[in-house]
Design a protein that fits this description.
It is a single chain. By secondary structure, the protein is of the alpha+beta class. The protein folds into 2 domains: 160 residues, Ribosomal Protein S5, domain 2; 143 residues, Alpha-Beta Plaits (2-Layer Sandwich), CATH 3.30.70.890. The protein is 38% helix and 26% strand. It contains 8 helices and 13 strands. The strands form 3 sheets. Strands 1, 4, 5, 6, 7, 8 and 9 form a 7-stranded mixed sheet that branches. A 4-stranded antiparallel sheet has the order 11-12-10-13. Strands 2-3 form a two-stranded antiparallel sheet. Helix 2 packs across helix 3 and helix 5 runs antiparallel to helix 6. The structure holds ligand DP6. Ligand DP6 binds next to helix 4.
């Protein structure tokens, strides 16, 4: 029986995706922009099953219940789109410890979309792969590309290749590795429905897109980092003002945010961004990594990642 293997990297959004304008099609309320992190990957093997059921394991753990259903729903969309009646055996492994709190559905669904494309010789273009991955998890549509990716509505596309800015680094600081209490999917629905700040953030965040593209083009770390940090703070303000309130931050998250600001006062250029969890990603340049990790982050475990 044919088994294919596919790999995809994680990505971190500088201008965030948070909310869908179409839940069924997984279309976003606004554009988002990310950097792809090839140091964090998911490798997935896919083959056709001889049974009428999908069998899925992640990091050697067989999935059941809600976790499995999320992937089966995606496989159902794939089957109906391409008129395929097979079921699958899927085995997925992350290059980073799942427990590190970095595990992202983005690399997982991007790798699965690539694997299915290969298994059926569909010869999908990167844009079509991006559209397919989006149906699994919105942020996965950006993980099809290396470097900088922009997601607008149906698909993402590459804006700059990694060699545009080889000195750029992301330090992922692990402050807690517990699974989040409220999933992004549920929290973003609640944010749209109940946060009084949400519509303003959508407008302001969309306006940041051309500004950040310009900053990246000019390799202006200060401008790019400031826009990313502001977008993150405003997204979390929306999340924190939902009813009932959701707070992904823990005391260590705030300590690190202050630490980054302190480093900037000491003329070390670095900026933070935070997704739907407590871990902090610090954006900086190669030459400042040692100073940041050794001096400022002493007790925290972190990964340093290039583009
Ligand atoms: C905070 O892509 O995981 O990381 O589309 O419902 O699967 P679903 O959500 P998901 O949300 C990611 C949210 C984010 C911001 C981002 O990556 O842009």
């Amino acid at each position: 029986m044919q088994t294919v293997t596919a790999q995809a990297p994680a990505n971190i959004a500088l201008i965030k995706y948070w909310g869908k304008r179409d839940e069924a099609l997984m279309l976003p309320t606004k554009s988002s922009l990310s950097i792809t992190l090839p140091g964090l990957t998911t490798t997935t093997t896919v083959s056709k099953s001889s049974t009428q059921e999908d069998t899925i394991s992640i990091d050697n753990k067989k999935l059941s219940g809600k976790d499995k259903q999320k992937i089966v729903s995606f496989l159902n969309i794939f089957r109906s789109t391409y008129n395929i009646h097979d079921h699958f055996l899927i085995d997925s492994k992350n290059s980073f410890p799942t427990a590190a709190g970095l595990a992202s559905s983005a690399s997982g669904f991007a790798a699965l979309a690539k694997g299915l494309n290969t298994l059926y010789n569909l010869e999908l273009s990167p844009e079509e792969l991006s559209q397919l991955a989006r149906r699994g998890s919105g942020s996965a549509c950006r993980s099809i590309y290396k470097g900088f990716a922009l997601w607008e509505d149906y698909e993402a596309r590459q804006l700059f290749t990694p060699d545009h800015w080889p000195e750029l680094r992301v330090i992922a600081v692990i402050v807690n590795n517990q699974e989040k209490k409220v999933s992004s999917r549920v929290a973003m629905q609640q944010t749209i429905k109940t946060s009084p700040l949400y519509s303003q953030w959508v407008t302001r965040s969309e306006q940041r897109i051309p500004q950040i593209i310009n900053a990246i083009k000019n390799k202006d770390l200060h401008m790019m980092g400031s826009l990313a940090e502001q977008d993150c703070i405003e997204m979390h303000a929306c999340i924190q003002t939902t009813k009932p309130a959701i707070d992904y931050w823990i005391p260590e998250t705030r300590v690190l945010m202050q630490q980054v600001q302190k480093l900037r006062h000491q003329k070390i250029p670095c900026y933070f961004t935070i997704d739907a969890g407590p871990n902090v990603k610090i954006i900086t340049l190669d030459q400042h990594v040692n100073q940041i990790t050794q001096v400022a982050l002493g007790e925290f475990f972190c990964y340093t990642l290039a583009l």
